[in-house]
Amino acid sequence: MGKFRGTDYFGIDSLLSEEEILIRDTVREFVDDAVLPVIERHYREGKFPRDLVGKMADLGMLGSTLPAKYGCAEMNNVAYGLLMQELERGDSGVRSFASVQSALVMYPLYTFGSEEQKNHWIPKLARGEAIGCFGLTEPDYGSNPGGLITRAELEGDHYVLNGAKMWITNGTIADVAVVWAKLEGLIHGFLVEKGTQGFSAPEMTGKHSLRASVTSELIFQDCPIPRVNILPKTEGLRSPLMCLNQARYGIAWGAVGAAMACYDTALSYAKSRIQFGKPIASFQITQSKLVDMLSEITKAQLLSLQMGRLKDKGTLRFQQVSLAKRNNVHCALDIARCAREILGANGILDEYPVMRHMANLESVKTYEGTHEMHTLIVGEDITGIPAYE
Ligand SMILES: Cc1cc2nc3c(=O)[nH]c(=O)nc-3n(C[C@H](O)[C@H](O)[C@H](O)COP(=O)(O)OP(=O)(O)OC[C@H]3O[C@@H](n4cnc5c(N)ncnc54)[C@H](O)[C@@H]3O)c2cc1C
Asked: N or C end of the chain: smaller count of CB under 10 Å?
């Protein structure tokens, strides 16, 4: 398999620091050497490549922006974004694993957890010795999580948790679940440990998308949760939304990686596939498609980079993250579809990555806030008028 050399039509590398490039290239190599050789088989079998977790941990990919004192790499947000971009060039499912572990489990522990919770969990999660999941979505509450019906009640020295979650990435393999439930009507986060009485996490099957990622239900039947397992600084819907904003940031970058993989595949295929006595790259319609793909990738790269710089300055607004996630995933999906066209019948084979990326991106477009919800978030921001109901 040839090494990926990147897509950088506008010399965007010149805007990156040496350290950012080093981190990007390290992950790029990891994807070429460890992810791509195994991903199609795992995708076909519907299995998460769990062997990769230890290697990802060794390279500092889990909770990578969190402080070194918890065993994390403490990288800046641009480096973290580039990491996500490269991982998703491999597969959205592998990137989803890292996103959930980092942004939806380690970040809430760091932001809302007690010092004991942080010291107990974050280093283990960083080393990949523990896996986490994030349970917000319920069968009846997806885009509108504020209505969630999972309930916690205080009984003596513990809480009792009842309810169900659905579509939870990493659920079945998780050692700890960050679960959002209402306590006296207000949303709080709880740490539910594997093996807790009354807790089960069956894997969901039948997916045509994100097949190399574990997706699960979480079921809580009178689960006793020790009082020390509430995340003490969570209060209200704002807390899980802060986590989602963190994850969306990585997704916006990740989608660019999937798009780059599809563009790169389509470009090299078009140069070598001969029809009517010439490479299909010599036809104007094919060139027009390739140029459209490259233009969108270049815009998404610049958008991601500026988003990262704003995040590192501390001025990034969640509405800007919504715009970037919405734009980049939408473009990536269009690019994957267009790459599939350029590859003709070969485009549907798993010898090439485009159909896998295309199917994956259908999930990516829906999770962490659907395309439509991000439209409404930006719409409200620019008009001042909420249009959710
Ligand atoms: C593979 C995968 C992994 C996931 N991982 C996780 C996870 O780890 N943790 C977790 O908590 N969740 C996870 N999710 C769930 C995901 O976040 C939800 O699917 C998402 O929020 C959308 O909810 P829904 O599927 O119930 O769609 P719905 O909310 O039922 O929406 C259906 C359609 O209606 C549209 N819609 C809804 N409301 C409006 C409105 N007001 N205006 C206009 N259109 C509207 C939506 O945009 C969508 O197109 C995952 C989902 C998938 C597919």
From this structure: C
